[in-house]
Amino acid sequence: MTDRVHPTRSDPVVAAVSAGVGGPVGSRAGRHPWWTPVRVVLALAALAFALGMVQKSACYDDTWSDGQQRYSQMCYSDLPYLYTGRGFVELAWPYDDDAEVRGRYEVMEYPVGISYVAYGTAWATHLLTGSPDLAERFTRPVSELFGDEEVQGEIRWFVVLSAVGLALATLLTAWFLAGVDRRRPWDAAMFAASPALALTALVNWDLLAVVFVAGAVWAWARDRPVLTGVLIGLGTATKLYPLFLLGAVLVVCVCDKRVRDFLVTTAAAAGAWLLANAPAYLSGPEEWKVFWTFNSERGPDLGSLWLVVAQATDTAIDASTVNTWSWLLFGAWCVGVFVLGVLAPKTPRLAQLGFLIVAGFLLVNKVYSPQYVLWLLPLAVLARPRWRDQLVWQGSEVLYFAAVWWYLGGYLAPGGGGDAGFYWLAILVRVAGELFLIGLVVRDVLVPRHDPVRIDDAVVELGRTPARVGPS
């Protein structure tokens, strides 16, 4: 396509790298009948996910039973522990209110979307491994199950089947991102080839929500507010943060005087969320509420600035204090994003606003788990599609990824002979990397001539390419 934006001509980093393979794309490039940009992006996403599986192989080989290896090799995953710890080993429905089941297993602390997928994966695991005797297992202490040889085989299958589902979510996310702007399919390569994706894809099921966010941005780009709302609603039923996209939609609709589209999108999101939650709530209302109570009762936790303050000052910060201040700060941040959007010279793009809102939530939240980088990744690559900026930000995330596992393993904590201060530094570096990207996006919104998307699209519309690639 002659009207596509080619990174080798528009992005300084890609242009410099292309010098080693013949230089920027020429007028006769891109004519291969099969290797289209979208297929290349999908291949990159598959490769990144496969590398992520290899990175977890050390833990897979011993079924995550080595308490230190999962930290020293940085191959920890929640998936195997939840298989036994939440009753999937006995095919217990996550929202079963039976007293005996609840006496044996903790309630799933995630939103219903993740619970449904984990439960379905457990069924598939049991079918593939020969439908074990569940009645016999119910007579044994739960503490024995994780070390049982038969159960360990099931755990491996559970992780493999979960990985297959998450790999499909990754590919679908990449496809959505490549289609948001038909002239910019290569922006999705920054998601597909992301080191953050490879490292964190299998830590938990966060990619299930990521695909809904990418799908919502794709649907909005095609002027389909109902589908946008449905995807936001289903995403919110999987993780809370997709809800924040409605704030971005609100700003766009206010700027463009599209109030009806906002109302339609919100109604569709609410309807989809209610339908998704109905089976869980009707079968066990108290169990359904655990997600909300669990999160409200948490104090300062991993990755958060709250944890740095609490540990560095040796101060106990109770959960209610963190809850109050984090929501107040996030509310103020959202007001700031709204004012930024309505005062901008041109209507900001949905991805820019969505990125700013989600980033603000993570900065003030009381927990910032390593896999939460996936929440920002699809929005970040669309908000600021420049490789240099993405590499700077993701470099800070990779540093934190290593530090958090070494910290949990005792290598960066006083009890293990290490220095917890390095972990605090890693948190601050991660925050600095995020603020760096936030600053660039805010500048792009306020001064559109700095926005890479507007710059590149204007060049394409004029039917020419830049004489040279410069910084932006």
Please describe the topology of this protein.
Blueprint: H1 7-10, H2 12-18, H3 37-55, H4 57-61, H5 69-72, H6 79-85, H7 99-104, H8 112-128, H9 134-138, H10 142-145, H11 149-180, H12 189-192, H13 195-200, H14 207-221, H15 225-236, H16 245-256, H17 259-283, H18 285-288, H19 290-296, H20 305-312, H21 319-343, H22 350-364, H23 373-383, H24 387-408, H25 420-446, H26 452-461
Helix pairs in contact: 3-11, 6-11, 8-11, 11-14, 14-15, 14-23, 15-17, 16-17, 16-21, 16-22, 20-25, 21-22, 22-23, 22-25, 24-25
How would you portray this structure in words?
By secondary structure, this protein is mainly α. 66% of the residues lie in helices and 0% in strands. It has 26 helices and no strands. The protein has helices spanning 7-10, 12-18, 37-55, 57-61, 69-72, 79-85, 99-104, 112-128, 134-138, 142-145, 149-180, 189-192, 195-200, 207-221, 225-236, 245-256, 259-283, 285-288, 290-296, 305-312, 319-343, 350-364, 373-383, 387-408, 420-446, 452-461. Residues 465-472 have low confidence and may be disordered.
Following the backbone from N to C, one meets helices and strands in this order, namely HHHHHHHHHHHHHHHHHHHHHHHHHH
Question: What count of helical segments does DSSP give?
Answer: 26
Helix percent band: 55-70%
The strand count comes to 0
Distance between the termini: 24 Å
Describe the sheet with the most strands: none
- Helix/sheet category: mainly alpha
Provide the residue-averaged pLDDT.
89
Beta-strand proportion: under 5%
Radius of gyration from the CA trace? 23 Å
Q: What quaternary form is this?
A: single chain
Ranges where pLDDT stays below 50 over 5 or more residues in a row are 465-472
Shape: globular
